[in-house]
Amino acid sequence: MNRLKSAVNIRHGKLKAVLKFLELESPSPVAREGTAYVRTPVRWTMPVERIERITQLRRREQSRMKAYMEARAA
User: Fold this and answer.
1) DSSP class of residue 47?
2) Which of 9, 32, 33, 45 sits 20 to 30 Å CA-CA off 61?
3) 23: Cα separation from own chain's centroid
């Protein structure tokens, strides 16, 4: 992982989180072999539709929380 960390220039914790995320994708572009991660033949593409759907959901949740807080302040 040190070689990859220096190649992409991100902190160890962030890199580990990204690799864990990619490992959960189906099909996964990385696999764990012991304590190391290896690439699989799967080509990963960013799930744009899923990201947009989750972003909109979080924005609606934030809006509802803000409305709730404003109602309590009144």
Assistant:
1) -
2) 45
3) 11
Same structural domain, 33 and 55: no
pLDDT by residue for the chain (74 residues), tens digit each? 778 888 888 899 999 999 999 999 999 999 999 988 999 999 999 889 999 999 999 999 999 999 999 998 87
Bridge partners (DSSP) listed for residue 36: 33
Q: Which helix (H) or strand (E) holds 39?
A: strand 36-39
Task: Please give the backbone phi and psi of residue 53, each rounded to the nearest 5 degrees, phi first.
Answer: -65, -45
Tokens of 53: 């759907």
Is residue 34 domain-shared with residue 52, that is, in the same domain? no
Determine the structural domain holding residue 4 and report its residue range: 1-43
Dihedral angle at the C-alpha atoms of 44, 48, 50, 56, nearest 10 degrees? 150
